[in-house]
Protein: VCBS repeat-containing protein
Organism: Microbulbifer taiwanensis
Amino acid sequence: MQRITAFLLLLFSSIAFANEPLVSLRDVDKLWKTWSPGSPSTQSLTKKLKVSEGVSIDYEFEVTSKGNGVLKIGNSHIRIYDRHDDGIYFENGLLWNKAEDINDDGFLDVVVWGNAFVELSDLDERSVKVPVLVHLIFAPGLKTYVKSVASEYIYSTFKEST
């Protein structure tokens, strides 16, 4: 499984700049700048993604004062930002992310990838670098995204559509 993940990471990193990211470091900086004493412990921004002609979906990026951030799109919540070293954090803070039609069905899917640094144990503060990957596929019949692939270190939640 790790070899497949590593291969996919290499594949997607070669085309990372083909599309604008769903959430950029500029977005993170914008949210950090809004904090002031007494402000809420979370800040968020909402954007719209044109999934295909005539189909759009709103998504939200929320970041906490502790340095964690979640992409909320459809029924999925994916931790894509983590600078808070509490045993797991992401390289450069923000995972690479973009919308791309990865299954050639005419709808943009969501791809998140990068590296997590994972502490070996509570007794050993050394960390190992682990590749992480999430694929969300747009399901037109459900009008939302469904999980295709999700690495364990991203702490994602996916609600089943009914």
